[in-house]
Amino acid sequence: MSKAVKLALMLAAVAAVAGCQTAPQPLYQWESYQPQVYEYFKGEPKEAQVEALERDLQKINASGRKAPPGYHAHLGMLYLSMGKDDQMVQEFRTEKALFPESAAYMDFLLKNAKTGVATK
Fold first, then answer.
1. Is position 21 within any domain?
2. Does residue 40 lie within any of the structural domains?
3. Of 91, 89, 96, which is closest to residue 57 (Cα–Cα)?
4. What share of the chain is helix, strand, coil (3-state, %, to 5)?
5. What is the pLDDT of residue 39?
6. Model-level pTM?
7. Burial class (CB in 10 A: 0-12, 13-18, 19+), 117
8. What CATH number did the domain enclosing 42 receive?
9. Which of 9, 11, 31, 85 is deepest in the core (most CB within 10 A)?
C-alpha cells in the first residue's frame, strides 16, 4: 500500500473518531434566570419572580447541574425586598458556599441587611 493511501486512511479514521465526539455539556443550567433578572429591573412583581426562580431551582437540582453564579444572590435580594429575612440569609449563605469568590460581597450584603442599610 502506498504512503498516500495509508495517510488518507489514517486521516479518514481520525476524522471519523473526531466526528463522533459529543459537544461538552454546559457547566451551569440557566433556566429562566436571565429573564427574571430583566423582570426585576422592569419592576415586575417580586412574588412571581421568586416563584419562577424556585421552580427553576428544583429543575436545576433534579438535572444534576448547578445554578449559575448570582442565582442564589438574586433570589436572596428578592427575599430581602419582600421582608423574608430568614430565606434571604439562607440564599446568601448558599451563594457564598457554592461560589467562594463571592464571599466578601455576600458578607457585605448580610452585614448591611442586618443593620437595615440594604433594605432602603
1. no
2. yes
3. 91
4. 70, 0, 25
5. 87
6. 0.75
7. exposed
8. 1.25.40.10
9. 31
